[in-house]
């Protein structure tokens, strides 16, 4: 073997001239495999992270609907009828005593005749008692028994808005009084009184609030 022969060549090659043969480095397949596996892992982790971000911004892939899926939390307002403690009586079942507490003559009869046309029953018509005569400064005073406070008096009050309402605990019977005061001019216009009666008989529903979740 020549001294110029590289170690490990086993004498198979002989160096001739001034050129050396090119030696190929052995391929490192192990490193390529490791790099390939690492690349796959990186791509997989990156793809998973991207999917997580998409889920965050799109709500996990669930489709939003205007109607909702029944699991939305919120506040719901629903109108419910306002129950009345007692049913309101009809004007034809209410007896009204019309009393004049002013110095103007004829007001009691004129007012009583108009109330009769509107369906009320008329009782006594005349001057007010000494307790109220010339002492009612407003448009009028509506008097009745305790039971009339939320029944007959509100119905009669639709005919004379602004009149004071008062009950007498010791009073007997179901009749009510309309005492005409100094500020009285006339009863409410019939269309206005009719609308007030309708609204009184069918009050608007009271809203109720219900919280979800």
UniProtKB/TrEMBL annotation:
Composition-biased stretches (Basic residues): 13-26
LytR/CpsA/Psr regulator C-terminal domain sequence ranges: 93-184
User: Know the name of this protein?
Assistant: LytR/CpsA/Psr regulator C-terminal domain-containing protein
InterPro entries named in the record: LytR/CpsA/Psr_C
Highest taxon listed in the record's lineage? Bacteria
Q: Which organism is it from?
A: Streptomyces collinus
Where along the chain is composition biased (Low complexity)?
A: 65-83
Q: Which Gene3D superfamilies match?
A: 3.30.70.2390
The record's region (Disordered) falls at 1-26, 65-90
């Amino acid at each position: 073997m020549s001294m110029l022969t590289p170690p490990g060549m086993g004498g198979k090659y002989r160096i001739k001239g001034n050129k050396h043969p090119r030696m190929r480095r052995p391929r490192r397949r192990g490193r390529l495999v490791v790099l390939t596996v690492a690349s796959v892992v990186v791509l997989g982790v990156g793809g998973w992270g991207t999917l997580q971000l998409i889920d965050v911004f799109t709500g996990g892939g669930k489709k939003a609907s205007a109607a909702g899926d029944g699991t939305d939390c919120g506040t719901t307002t629903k109108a419910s009828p306002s129950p009345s403690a007692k049913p309101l009586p009809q004007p034809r079942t209410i007896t009204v005593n019309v009393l004049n507490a002013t110095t103007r003559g004829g007001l009691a009869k004129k007012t009583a005749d108009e109330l009769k046309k509107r369906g009320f029953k008329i009782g006594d018509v005349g001057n007010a008692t000494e307790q109220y005569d010339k002492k009612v400064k407003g448009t009028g005073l509506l008097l009745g028994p305790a039971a009339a406070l939320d029944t007959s008096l509100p119905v009669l009050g639709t005919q004379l808005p602004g009149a004071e309402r008062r009950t007498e605990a010791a009073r007997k019977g179901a009749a009510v009084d309309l005492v005409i005061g100094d500020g009285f001019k006339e009863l409410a216009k019939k269309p206005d009184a009719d609308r007030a009666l309708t609204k009184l008989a069918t009050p608007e529903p009271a809203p109720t609030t219900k919280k979800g979740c």
